[in-house]
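quick one, 151 residues, struct below
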Amino acid sequence: MDPRVGVGVFVVNAEGKFVIGKRKGSHGAGTWALPGGHLEFGESFEDCAVREILEETGLNITKVEFLTATNDVMEAEGKHYITIYMKGVVSDACAQPQLLEPEKCEVWEWISWDELRPQADAQIRLGSDGVERKLFSPLLALFEQRPNVHV
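---
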């Protein structure tokens, strides 16, 4: 199977926090990931980011920019993705993400970059509750393949 192109978006608010959600009903179910989706034919990375964020969260974003990319081979699932990481700023400082695709995501949360700390056992500590939550493998790959990237 040929690689597919996924786009993950760091949706940043005025406090410098970004949106992360718990996946369900797809590969990586039960793991935490950025909102995003598949790049459509002829679509720019920026247009894909804006479209996917609006479809999944109802948030409008501006200042959309490319951050980096990872090469994600998911052997167990038989999938290979090139993941394009983008960043966008929420247009309305008071806006909150909505669960517009509840079959794909259980919940959205705002977290800071500093709250995203890779653990040796491939777990991530999110938020002040101290609960460790498993990250979606492409997001783990971001830390492994691009350790100097920062939002």
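The helical segments are 45-57, 137-145.
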